[in-house]
């Protein structure tokens, strides 16, 4: 998996380099036109599937587990299309790494992540809000794509005892029934053998350091299946 990720990153860098070279050779009259640009993004804060409450409810429906506590971070390498000081979009290869020890659980099972990640393409559009003359402006970003789930889950199944009091009953774990390792895709996939949907939205601000460099900070965001996060940093270099 690591070799495939490195191969994709190298391919994207090559495409970006060729696009950058082509842009640099264009005539001055095209200086205000849209251009391709290299862009990278990294999540500084980590996502948390337990917040907000409605996200945890969604994950409970998707996974079938009452308690879903996933944490981790994402990273992407992209080719951006647009220009400095304006709205633009990014075509990205993303890697979402779920922290080891994240859990799914109910009365009958504990499921613990190990080396779990989701990798795949996503497209993002960033709306720059405010006049073009603002060097720093609010931004709203929306993205979506698909990702392949890899890694494994360590599963512990329990024997349980049922207790009934009137119309109510409780479930108490008594002892371990079985322990095993299973593919993470069994629990996180949405379609196919090991594919899921990735995407989300965030709000923050963008700053044009100069005509070539744009820095964007996502202050607060939501990721499908991963929950909320605070802190996303993106750098885009416009070649002309």
Key traits:
240 residues; Porin; disordered N terminus
Class from helix and strand fractions:
alpha+beta
What is the makeup of the main sheet? 8 strands, antiparallel, barrel
Instruction: Tell me the CATH topology of the domain at 2-22 and 37-99 and 119-146 and 193-235.
Output: Porin
Which word captures the global form?
elongated
End-to-end C-alpha gap: 35 Å
**pLDDT under 50 segments (min length 5)?**
1-13, 15-31
Helix-strand sequence: HEEHEEEEEEEHEEEE
CATH class of the domain at 2-22 and 37-99 and 119-146 and 193-235: Mainly Beta
Q: What is the tally of helical segments?
A: 3
Rg: 22 Å
Numbering strands along the chain, what is their spatial order in the largest sheet? 1-4-5-7-8-10-11-13
Mean residue pLDDT: 86
Helical proportion, percent range: 10-25%
Our estimate of the beta-strand percent is over 45%
């Amino acid at each position: 998996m690591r070799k495939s990720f490195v191969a994709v990153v190298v391919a994207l860098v090559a495409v970006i380099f060729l696009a950058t070279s082509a842009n640099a050779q264009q005539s001055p009259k095209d200086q205000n036109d849209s251009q391709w640009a290299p862009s990278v993004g990294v999540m500084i804060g980590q996502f948390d599937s337990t917040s907000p409450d409605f996200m945890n409810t969604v994950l409970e429906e998707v996974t079938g587990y009452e308690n879903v506590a996933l944490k981790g971070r994402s990273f992407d390498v992209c080719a951006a299309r647009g220009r400095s000081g304006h709205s633009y979009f990014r075509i990205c290869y993303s890697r979402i790494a779920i922290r080891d020890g994240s859990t799914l659980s109910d009365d009958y099972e504990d499921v613990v992540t190990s080396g779990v990640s989701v990798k795949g393409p996503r497209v993002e559009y960033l709306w720059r809000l405010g006049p073009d003359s603002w060097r720093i402006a609010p931004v709203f970003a929306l993205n979506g794509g698909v990702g392949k789930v890899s890694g494994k889950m360590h599963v512990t199944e329990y024997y349980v005892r049922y207790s009934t009091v009137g119309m109510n009953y409780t479930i108490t774990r008594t002892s371990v029934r079985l322990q095993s390792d299973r593919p993470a895709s069994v629990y996180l996939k949405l379609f196919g053998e090991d594919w899921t949907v990735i995407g989300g939205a965030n709000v923050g601000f963008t700053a044009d350091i100069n005509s070539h460099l744009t820095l964007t900070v996502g202050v607060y965001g939501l990721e499908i299946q991963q929950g909320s996060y605070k802190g996303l940093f993106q750098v885009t270099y416009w070649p002309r």
